[in-house]
Amino acid sequence: MLGHFKEPDDPRHSKDVEIKWGVHPRGERRAQWVRGEDRTALLVLISGRFRMEFPGRDVVLAEQGDYVVWGRGVDHSWEAEEESVVLTVRWPSVPGYRVEGP
Fold first, then answer.
1. What distance in Å separates the CA atoms of residue 45 and residue 61, rounded to the nearest whole number?
2. What contacts 24+ positions apart, CB below 8 Å, involve 36-40?
3. Distance CA 72, CA 37 (A)
4. Is the Cβ–Cβ distance between 22 and 50 less than 8 Å?
5. What is the β-pairing status of strands 50-54 and 84-91?
6. CA 35: distance to chain centroid?
């Protein structure tokens, strides 16, 4: 992982970009929608089946290497339809998006 969430003296600390490796069990959902997104993001499916939800449209990533990109201001959420591994790159890296589960 790389981004604002690493300690400032860690070489993986960055306010410009964040990279996260996500492992999600089948049926896991984001606890709430992201509203008022301040970042641009790229999400790449490594394995599994992963659904990104956007207002009025869902994008299902089903094949290794499938990806989706969305920009600032795009509300979104997600669900792991199967056990999934995803790589997410966001820029810039800013705090305030982490949500604890129910």
1. 6
2. 36/73, 36/75, 37/70, 37/71, 37/72, 37/73, 37/74, 37/75, 37/76, 38/72, 38/92, 38/94, 39/72, 39/90, 39/91, 39/92, 39/93, 39/94, 40/69, 40/70, 40/71, 40/72, 40/90, 40/91
3. 5
4. no
5. unpaired
6. 13
Question: Which helix (H) or strand (E) segment is 67 a member of?
Answer: strand 67-70
Task: Give me the sign of the Cα torsion angle 17, 21, 34, 13.
Answer: negative
Task: Convert the pLDDT of each residue in 27-83 to its tens digit.
Answer: 999 989 999 889 999 999 999 999 999 999 999 999 999 999 999 999 999 999 999
Q: Rounded to two decimals, what is the model's pTM?
A: 0.88
What does the block give as tokens for 10? 């860690």
Residues 6 or more apart whose Cβ sits within 8 Å of residue 87: 19, 20, 21, 22, 43, 44, 46
Which among 90, 89, 88 has a CA at the least distance from the CA of 38? 90
3-state secondary structure of 6: coil
- DSSP label at 22? E
